[in-house]
Every structure is written in C-alpha cells, then in structure tokens.
Amino acid sequence: MKNISKELMELAEHIRPAREAFAEADKRRIESALEAGRLLCQAKDDCPHQQWLAFLTLAGIYEQQARELMQLARAGLTAHVVSEIGGINAALAYLVKARLPEPGECLTVGRIGWPEKNTPFAIIKPNTAYPGYYDVAIADMWANPATVFSSTKPLKGGSLRLADGSFFDNLWHIVDRELDVPHSQREFQMMPADLVSRDGAFLFAKPATAAGDGSKTNRAPNYAF
Question: What's the average model confidence in pLDDT over 79-89?
C-alpha cells in the first residue's frame, strides 16, 4: 500500500489474526450465553420453586445472572443480532427499552433521531379487546410511494419455546421483517396511547382485502406524526 512502511504492514499482519480470534471468542461467548439461558429456562420449568436457589448453587451461577441469561434467551434474539447490538450487556439494555407497552401506553420504534429524522417507524399498542395481545403498524411515510403495514389481527405478546429449546417471538419477528432499521440503530419511545389514537388512527385502518398476519398498502396520508 502507498506510504505504508514495511514495519506497519507486518504489524497489520499480526493484528488481523488477533482481531479474528477475538471476534470468534466473542461469538462463542454469546452463543454459550444463549444456550445457558435456554437450559436455565428448561430447568426453571422443571425445578420445584423451593429448590431453585439450590439448583443455581449446584450449577455454579448467581440468581441475577441466571435471570439475565433467561431474559436474553426468551427474547428469541439470535447470536448475530446480539453481536450487532453490541454484545450481551448491550442486548440486555436493549430489551429493557423494547418492553411491550402496558394499557394506556404505546411503543414507537424508529431509527435513532426519529421523529426528527425521516425514517421508517413502528408503533405497537395493546389491543383493548384482548389483554396480552397487540396491534402493530409499521410505516415509511417518506418512501415513494409511502407504505403502511398493519397487522390484520391482534398479535400475542411474548415468546414461545420451540421443540429444540429455542424461543420465537412472533410479534417482534414481524416488526423485524417489516421495519427497515437495524437493531443497533433502533430508538424506542414509550408514548401515551391516546396520542396515537388521535393522530395515528389511519395507520391501524384495516384494508378491505386484508389477509394473513398483515398487509402492506400505499395508504399515504397528507401528514405524519
């Protein structure tokens, strides 16, 4: 390379494998944390309540650490996503911000800087008729043409454990599929539900031909909030 000394080029050759080894070790650490979390979830289901602390002592793990590992596993995040967010601690902080809204609240998800920046966004609000279920709308009002995705039926919050012990969260799977914002660049805001009911009702309007778990339409309004 131009203007790079031989000594610096040799240093770069030494740094590259060290960086690759570090990245591989970090990947294994995340995968091990997710596997430990899945196993702890299984143990929690199988273990009598009064024996849980004794079990954790036998497993050599503190209760707080076990709680965090189970939270990480139940979220259904892949090792790749955890790495993208910034690692285990960053993913745990991410999950705190990504909590589902309580009645009277709604959660908005957009790119960092939204709504000041023109960016796709998602809104998740509790379904008033079905506790534990949520309505989801995902919009890109600045696309050409503007697009709105809305769930055609309430989506159950929380994850399901699959046969292999991993977890799948259908609600967030749909958000991830439709929202073109990387996990590492997402910003979460909890807002009063009446604000969305007043200014964003059009986002949740159901098309006449709706089918499946949602539909994407070009229902572009004259304003955005």
Answer: 95
Number of CB atoms found within 10 A of residue 149's CB: 22
Domains of the chain by residue range: 6-96, 100-217
What is the pLDDT at residue 119?
Answer: 81
Is residue 124 within 8 A of residue 171, CB to CB? The reply is: yes
d(CA 137, CA 125): 9
| DSSP secondary structure letters along the chain | -TT--HHHHHHHHHHHHHHHHHHHHHHHHHHHHHHHHHHHHHHHHHS-GGGHHHHHHHHT--HHHHHHHHHHHHTT--HHHHHHHTSHHHHHHHHHHTPPPPTTEEEEEEETTTTTS---EEEEEE-SSSTTEEEEEEEETTSSS-EEEE-SS-EE-S-EE-TTS-EE-HHHHHHHHH--S-GGGEEEEEEEHHHHHHH-GGGGPPPTT--TT-EEE----S---
Instruction: State the Cα angle at 87 between 86 and 88, rounded to 5°.
Output: 140
Q: Going by C-beta distance under 8 Å and a sequence separation of 6 or more, which residues neighbour residue 132?
A: 156, 157, 158
Q: Can you tell me the distance from the alpha carbon of 88 to that of 28, in angstroms, rounded to the nearest whole number? A: 12
Q: Choose among 133, 102, 146, 106: nearest CA to 122.
A: 106
How is residue 117 written in tokens?
A: 């920046």
Question: Could you tell me how many residues make up the chain?
Answer: 225
Is the pLDDT at 217 greater than 70, yes or no? no
Does residue 220 surpass a pLDDT of 50?
A: no
The pLDDT, as a whole number, for residue 124 is 96
Query: Is the Cβ–Cβ distance between 203 and 123 less than 8 Å?
Result: yes
